[in-house]
Design a protein that fits this description.
2 domains; single chain; mainly beta
Length: 269
């Protein structure tokens, strides 16, 4: 990080360092650069100067862009855009009315502006810079619907209906949680799931299309751990084809009992 050197100041002989406008700019630029480098490093290779990245908050609910009617809300938070961090105030509309939630930089003066300069001429110099959400007739270049959430983990509660047993048995109960976040086109995820089988099951299919859609030709394989409710631990394999997780135990089928399994990984969509 760039720094302003102060070692030449010597109060004992009245050797003071002036704080000029260029020095103030230097300090602000150094702070902005350090923050930008940190955030860009966390986002990774998918970073784009034209993308709005949500750091926290900014959760949208309600009607989608272009809907004929309906309320829409966005919670307060902060975003990173083109090398800078901006505060985002909460936004709410009672009727989207076939319009869009767009966003742009907003600059206003602080309440204590203007200030008098040394020649008694007043200037407004304290800019408050926020990322403003507004309801507009067109989406614009940075619509709220296009914001990226690389630091937000989401939870999908898996209903029993998403499990399908293959190989003679059935699933009498099931559920779990699929935690995930999206960075660019990559999903990072981990899953915990419990289910009970009746009869011997050779394979379990878990439909994840509510969370993501992948071409059926896209595959990945990962492993995880499975625990019988009251005894030993086994290794499992998840072979994903498109949006379907195919879960099987590497050491054989799943006999009639209760199971807990855990797995994690990343894949592209």
């Amino acid at each position: 990080m760039d720094r302003i050197i102060t070692t030449n100041i010597d109060d004992s002989i009245g050797q003071e360092q002036p704080l000029l406008g260029k020095s103030v700019d230097f300090f602000q630029d150094a702070t902005q650069e350090a923050i930008a480098n940190t955030v860009i490093g966390l986002i990774g290779s998918s970073y784009s100067t034209s993308q709005v990245y949500v750091l926290f908050g900014c959760v949208r609910t309600g009607a989608a862009d272009g809907a004929a009617s309906g309320a829409a809300d966005v919670t307060a938070g902060a975003v990173f855009y083109n090398g800078e961090v901006y505060t985002v105030d909460a936004f709410s509309t009672t009727n989207i009315n076939s319009q869009y939630l767009s966003s742009a930089l907003s600059i206003t003066s602080a309440s204590f502006d203007p200030v008098d300069f040394s020649n008694s001429v007043p200037f407004s110099v304290h800019n408050k810079r926020k990322w403003l959400i507004s309801q507009t007739s067109s989406a614009g270049s940075t619509p709220v619907s296009g914001w990226s959430y690389p630091f937000t983990w989401y939870n999908y509660s898996i209903p029993q209906a998403k499990y399908t047993a293959i190989g003679g048995g059935s699933i009498t109960s099931g559920g779990g949680n699929f935690m995930y976040k999206l960075t660019g086109n990559t999903i990072s995820w981990y899953i915990t799931s419990t289910f009970t089988t009746s009869g011997t099951v050779t394979l379990i299919k878990l439909d994840m299309s509510d969370v993501f859609t992948r071409n059926a030709g896209l595959q990945f394989i990962t492993t995880g751990l499975e625990k019988l409710a009251l005894s030993e631990v086994f290794e499992i394999q998840i072979n994903a084809t498109g949006s379907i997780f195919n879960i099987n135990r590497l050491s054989g089928g799943l006999s009639a009992t209760s199971y807990i399994f855990y797995a994690c990984g990343t894949f592209d969509i």
